[in-house]
Design goal:
- There is one protein chain.
- By secondary structure, this protein is of the alpha+beta class.
- The protein has two domains: 76 residues, DNA Primase, Chain A; 56 residues.
- It is 59% helix and 7% strand.
- The protein has a four-stranded antiparallel sheet with strand order 1-2-3-4.
- Strand 3 and strand 4 form a beta hairpin.
- Helix 3 crosses helix 4 and helix 5 runs antiparallel to helix 6.
Length: 165
Amino acid sequence: MTVEEIKQTYSMRDILDRYGIHVNRSGFASCPFHTGDRTPSLKVYKNDFYCFACGAHGDIFTFVQKMDNLTFREAFQLLGGNYEKSTVAARMKIYHAQKAREMEAKRRAAAWKKVKDNLGAIGRLREEIPKLEPFSDEWCEAQNEMLQQLALFDYMQEEDGLWSH
């Protein structure tokens, strides 16, 4: 079971029952983490606890850790949790998928920047060409540049697949 599955299986009261700790109708119990608790000071909620006297608090795992002097891993396993290689493999798969999505987002952002720059150049040429003398050297160079920019724009669309999503 996973941490969330264990938390869904056991309430805080279930865990206190395992240790023979009685919870009154108000949801209080005598705190096992300090001495001299004449009136119950440990407030028990559905998923966690808090002691108003000593400040101890936490969830079901913390309670088991404190009661039995265990590590989180030991408390997790005691409550039915398991660490499997398949879980590690699944986490690695998720990690690599996330990295691949990040790399793809960076690649697409760079491609969009190229497109934006290309469209800016095309826009400037569209404004400049009508101001030039038709068929002059400057006009021919601007027309040639415009054709190159349009061809580059078409190539970027196909190469980067920006319109496919």
